[in-house]
């Protein structure tokens, strides 16, 4: 069986992650940090293309990797309209929407398809995205709100959530498509999701401000609180930033460093302890919500993400939630492996390649009201 060569590219807010796989083995990886003052010189995300491209070219050159020998290149799929889960070919339609941030979220992940397409062209191979951030597999019951014409949408760490579930299922000798899991990504952002037989049927809109507060995210707020903020003079842009940049730990304690807050809490600092314990309480409450979505039929609760390295976090969530189902911790994230594995499934014929249509998988017109 051929061992395919796959390059994966994951542009983030302050770094670019690069990994080179031969088969399932990651031979080389790098997380190249970027100075904020360097990135600040670009007005729009897509303007960073040449800057990030050089970072990847330098990495390949330093590691003596021939940039013309890849069988596939995979980029993080930012900027796209909502799609079902799967592996998508990067074609002109997908590339255009990534460049234009068609989903309205200007994030460095929008560079993922652009960079993947460039490096795939050098190798005359295909370029893919795998389970993009706006992967939407919600059941209809998860969409309706109490305000007519306004619906819940899926904004989750879909790539890592699905790969964590696939990884666990494989270790257990189970088929992801036959099991129900609650899967959490607990890192710079926090996603909690209900997986029913291989589909994310419900979760939280982390871009829209749902769920627990996180290092830079406000989490759910009562409408009365939002009204008060508007009356205090906050603009719509200010409110959006609370959802993604300036809320959560940043607003409460002035830092997004969860490790620092956890250490201060352990040393007896009362404000830090209150904030830390409340965040874990809110994560646990949201896990409980997802248990009801699955009607209590939960095979396991899976924890992943950078904060899961913290033993206190895992123990507290177990104390709240282990009565629901066994809790298994997978510290860190599987995003680079997820992108490579998606490409490998397509290249080996184990999964059918999908094509991006430039139309959301679900639209309000699909609903009777």
Automatic annotation (TrEMBL):
Keywords from the UniProt entry: ATP-binding, Cytoplasm, Kinase, Nucleotide-binding, Transferase
Kindly list the organism's lineage. Bacteria, Bacillati, Bacillota, Bacilli, Lactobacillales
Please name the Pfam families in this protein's record.
Acetate_kinase
The residue ranges crossing the membrane are: none
The name on file for this protein is Probable butyrate kinase
Homology family: Belongs to the acetokinase family.
Q: Which reaction does it catalyse?
A: butanoate + ATP = butanoyl phosphate + ADP
Q: Where is it predominantly found?
A: cytoplasm
A GO molecular function term, named singly, is: butyrate kinase activity
Q: Where does this protein reside within or beyond the cell?
A: Cytoplasm
Superkingdom, natural source: Bacteria
> What range does the record give for the signal peptide?
none
Q: Per the UniProt record, which EC number(s) apply here?
A: 2.7.2.7
